[in-house]
Design a protein that fits this description.
Elements: E1 10-12, E2 47-50, E3 58-60, H1 68-74, E4 78-80, E5 89-93, H2 97-114, E6 122-123, E7 126-127, H3 132-135, H4 138-153, E8 168-176, E9 181-185, E10 192-200, E11 213-216, H5 222-225, E12 243-246, E13 252-257, E14 262-264, E15 273-281
Antiparallel strand pairs: 1-2, 2-5, 3-4, 5-13, 6-9, 7-8, 8-15, 9-14, 10-13, 10-15, 11-12, 11-14
Length: 282
């Protein structure tokens, strides 16, 4: 598993997301990816996107380890680096999550007690039907409204202009107990997918419990096949041909492209890992 060490992020700022509670966003990216802290300049929520360096980014060539002749030939030269084919993954830390999650947990566990699990990507655990928007109550509606607002901010037409898609929402709940996981899969028929964490089962404070959300490089293992000991320099290079993870934390909402292969690692705790997952399509 690689780590992103460059610390560059693309930040989308502006008006608060509709329906968002007031309060600052907590910046550190969950799991293994490092993102610098920054204050949220507006009430409500901002969105952080893990992405490549934007066009026009210039890296100055370093001379360490090079011969004097090479250093002279490189003097004054700039290397322009443009990250291509980025895969955006957005994380939003929702404030005031304790009260919200207490209500959500009660509703979800009551539903689990009353209905059998759907068999989808879940290896063990309980997967609800895909109608949580109908039976989940106002707290679920709140989460899904925020998710749609974030997705709209992260979506543009082919010329880069803002758009306002009329998202069609499908959502469900997942409850994983000891030993449960979700096998590698993607979500066809959707544009954005995402997850909101109601309870982490202790994963946030104890990495030994596993349960991480793992995203696989969409290029597959190709970038690591020829020379596994080499990686691309710069942002996100360490994960080329590998994977990145997000460690669950109550109150965390994140979105990713629906075509991105992902899985949930086995949970090794003794409590419950509870989440709401959703698809946004057209």
């Amino acid at each position: 598993m690689g780590r992103c060490n460059a610390g560059r992020t693309i930040r989308l700022r502006g008006e608060a997301l509709p329906g968002a509670p007031a309060g600052p966003m907590i910046r550190p990216w969950p799991g293994g990816v490092m993102v610098p802290r920054a204050a949220c300049p507006v009430a409500g929520l901002a969105v952080s996107v893990s992405g490549r360096a934007p066009a026009g980014t210039v890296w100055r060539a370093e001379s360490g380890g090079q011969s004097a002749e090479t250093q002279r030939s490189m003097a004054g030269l700039n290397i322009a680096v443009k990250g291509l084919f980025a895969t955006p993954v957005a994380a939003i830390e929702l404030p005031d999550s304790a009260a919200r999650n207490k209500e959500l947990e009660a509703v979800i566990l009551a539903r689990r007690d009353a209905s059998a699990s759907v068999q989808a990507s879940n290896a063990g655990g309980w997967h609800s039907d895909r109608d949580i928007a109908a039976w989940g109550g106002p707290r679920v509606a709140e989460i899904l409204t925020l998710a749609q607002s974030a997705a709209t901010k992260l979506t543009a037409d082919r010329d880069g202009n803002p758009v306002r898609p009329a998202w069609k929402v499908m959502a469900w709940a997942n409850v994983n107990g000891p030993g449960d996981s979700n096998i590698c899969h993607y979500h066809p028929g959707s544009f954005w997918s995402g997850t909101y964490y109601v309870a982490d089962g202790g994963c946030a404070s104890d990495p030994a419990l596993g349960g991480e959300f793992e995203m696989l490089d969409p290029r597959g293992p190709g970038p690591g096949m020829y020379a596994p000991s080499l990686k691309f320099a710069g942002e996100d290079g360490q994960s080329a041909g590998s994977a990145e993870t997000i460690r669950p934390r109550p109150g965390l909402l994140f979105l990713f492209p629906s075509w991105l292969y992902h899985q949930v690692r086995p949970y090794r705790g003794t409590r419950l890992r509870i989440s709401i997952a959703f698809n946004l399509g057209l």
